[in-house]
Amino acid sequence: MKYATEAFVLLIFGTLAAGVAVFAFGWPSLKTSEGELRCEGAGAVIVKVAGEDYAVNTLAGWRFPPVELIWNKDTFPETNIDRLIVRGLTLCDWNIAAKKK
Questions:
Q1: Which contacts (CB < 8 Å, 24+ apart) does range 76-84 have?
Q2: How many other CB atoms are there within 10 angstroms of residue 85's CB atom?
Q3: CA dihedral 91, 61, 63, 66 (to 10 degrees)
């Protein structure tokens, strides 16, 4: 019973300490970035973030700066640019790209 009381007191103090920390330093914010993903031409994947276009894959690289300038492992550790490339390629209209050849 003595250990249960001590555990309960530690739980209360921990909760109070966490509440004080959140109040003093603010709630931790999630760093996320939102953008508009699109495909142009024969597979150029572009993302628009804050009004600026960035190349997601090599086909878009000659027209736009790379997305890694704003979205990389340092700024967003959970970055998975391959996922953006795959999703962007599903937005391409391959019928129009094939007819232009």
A1: 76/31, 76/32, 76/33, 81/56, 84/37, 84/45, 84/47, 84/56
A2: 19
A3: 90
pLDDT tens track for 6-17 = 766 666 766 666
Cα 73 to Cα 25: distance, rounded to the nearest angstrom: 25
pLDDT for the residue 63: 92
The arrangement of strands across the sheet holding 44-49 comes to 36-40, 44-49, 52-55
Cβ-contact 54, 67 below 8 angstroms: yes
Rg value, the chain, Cα:
23
pLDDT tens string 69-79: 887 777 777 77
* C-beta of residue 54 within 8 angstroms of C-beta of residue 65: yes
